[in-house]
Amino acid sequence: MKVFLYDGTFEGLLSALYLGLRAGTDDLRIEAEDAHQPALFDEPIFHPTDEALADRLFALIRQEMSPMTLRHVYRLHLSEKPDAGTLLLPFLQLGFRIGPGINGLVTHPQVHPVLTMSRQVSRESHRLLGLLRFQELKGGLLYARYEPDFHQTPLIAPHFSQRMSSHPWIIHDLRRELAACWDTRQWVLRDLPAAETPDISSDEQELQQLWQAYFQHIAIRQRANPTVQRSFMPKKYWKHLVEKPGTMS
Amino acid sequence: MQLSEKLNILAESAKYDVSCSSSGSRRKNTPGGIGNAAAAGICHSWSDDGRCISLLKILMTNDCLYDCAYCVNRRSNDIPRASFTPRELADLTIAFYLRNYIEGLFLSAAIRHSPDKTMEDMVEMLRLLREEHRFNGYIHVKAIPGADPLLIAQAGRLADRMSVNIELPSERSLHLLAPQKKRENILLPMGQICQGILQRREEKRRYRQASDFVPAGQSTQLMIGASPETDRQILRLSQGLYRKFQMKRVYYSAYMAVNTSSLLPVPGGPPPMLREHRLYQADWLLRFYHFDAEELLQDEAPQLDLLLDPKCMWALRNPEIFPIEINRADYQALLRIPGIGPTSARRIISSRRYGPLTFDSLKRTGAVLKRARYFITCQGKYAGGRDFDPRRIHGLLTAEETFAQQGYQGIQLSLEDLLHQETPATTEKKSPSVILSRFNDLPSVTSAILSPLPVTDSPPPASGPALKSPLMLPVKGGLLSHEGFSL
Lengths: 249, 487
Prior knowledge:
The structure holds 2 protein chains of 2 kinds.
Chain A: E1 2-6, H1 10-23, E2 28-32, E3 43-46, H2 51-65, H3 67-79, H4 84-98, H5 112-131, E4 134-136, E5 142-146, H6 153-163, E6 169-173, E7 178-182, E8 187-191, H7 204-217, H8 226-232
Helix pairs in contact in A: 1-2, 1-4, 2-3, 3-5, 5-6
Chain B: H1 3-14, E1 45-46, E2 52-53, E3 55-59, H2 86-98, E4 104-108, H3 115-132, E5 138-142, H4 149-158, E6 161-163, H5 171-177, H6 183-206, E7 218-224, H7 231-244, E8 249-254, H8 273-288, H9 293-296, H10 310-317, E9 324-325, H11 331-335, H12 342-352, H13 359-363, H14 369-372, E10 376-378, E11 381-382, H15 390-422, H16 432-437, H17 443-450
Parallel strand pairs in B: 3-4, 4-5, 5-6, 6-7, 7-8, 9-10
Antiparallel strand pairs in B: 1-2, 10-11
Helix pairs in contact in B: 2-3, 3-4, 4-6, 7-8, 15-17
């Protein structure tokens, strides 16, 4: 089977998809170069990113389908799943045939997996808007660390840039060693090693203790319900929370 | 008194308020300001009782003039008392907000000197947050019954949501349990807020610049199980509140007996949480499924069924409209099917434009086929067993629900325990049937699985004999279909 490889960027994915759509075949996989695991009869072909093709497809999806469809494509890219590109190819083929209705075709076998994956990504983003925790560093910078399943930083940074517009902050993805940095005017994504442990401000510890105590006192003992707590707030996120769930004495 | 001590006391006093929603407002951040509101609302944590923490839910003071029989903060209770100054609480809110612990503030207060003085302090607190700290996050504030309408109006201009708690669902109970509160004093601010919201909506239509007034609407809370009102009375009250006062939400709070009183349930008993859950389900049916309270509960059976959800019960009482053909029914009809909600109904409609749905594609809409299959046909085919017989279906759904409520958790626990004990070394995955074969010589576990199934000892559904069709029992994960268990 033919496999189109790209460099792992969103533009790379779009240009590979463009070429895949032009090839007009179903018998094709589209994978990031790093994630590609060659099988016996694979014919991998690397396509360098072509910005012009990427822009073209970007505009076409928005025009022929909808901005919502474009959002699905972007979320699938951020999911970093190895089969994201391969799922998108038949999805977009169908999209060019039926237009904006593609977003509503939830039960179609070529649409359903795309929408499901897109929903997984957006569900985690929404959760993280609530579960991200900032600490105040010496000098007043707000710093948050987290380890999301998907590459969430580009999705959640705009939210915090509006909400905390007059405070500089850093959102640090330890798993990918990337950080979004906001200087009160714009945010940029840059590499940041996970090992660094910054100094916290003098008030920080006391405030964290206040929050921990509040968290304990707001729970009603007779209604203890760890199952529900965990289904909304899975344990994998607890590591970077300030409060200590599951410790009701 | 230390800040931490105050926070603990006043959180403890606030925790019986249920509302914690932060949705419905689109307040934008301003240059140099802090915060904004997300229309969908954001939950920031879940406490150990499984309730979401979205807002900093806190009282300004728990020092109360009133002596309501049900309330933990009543005057005659010997509990520690504390009060925040507006500045202390404003600073704390901002500090928590910047760390992304909370979405905003839910401010309430006990009546310390007079309703007016209490409301004045709260308005001052909000003014401090909005004007000095330029805080644009979400604020939910209680309207104090009996406070001056001018103060309520001021609070409404600063807050995103307001609420007046009714707590006791009838005037008689109110008179008995909270003699210092008057029905008029509760309804008056409610009416005022409702009028204010409607009026501002009209103004906004003409001038987009008009300032906000309680943009996220108002809510209220009813206590369940402290007084003798039936579910029917409660639901009719809620429906009235939704229609007359345009309430965004009515919250239900299973009464936790905190005080000893001859008028109330004894302390120590479990709160009626399942009843609370059923009321919420019924409430959703009123708000999103276009049901009427009269359809859900009749005079002769004024309580919601604890075993089956209100929609299933309604469907079984109205068998003549079922089964419904999924490929032809309109949105309203789809909403009436147990297991199908607004989201799956919309998905069904948008995807059947491109061709008829099968049971297989129906699964992908998110419909809960476990319940829905008894009430639908798909291209004329029925997948709910023999035929559409409400009595049979009632038996099946009841068995399944009992299993879920009592039995299933029991199995899960014993299953894990056993596996840890017996096979510490193996890591291979086991299919349910392999795991189950371990139980064959473990009588205690088998009885734990088998006892809750009410095949023979459940009360006969509606009229007619109890059903005995063990083979038809729907079973989670196929556990009981294994030959090790003969029913």
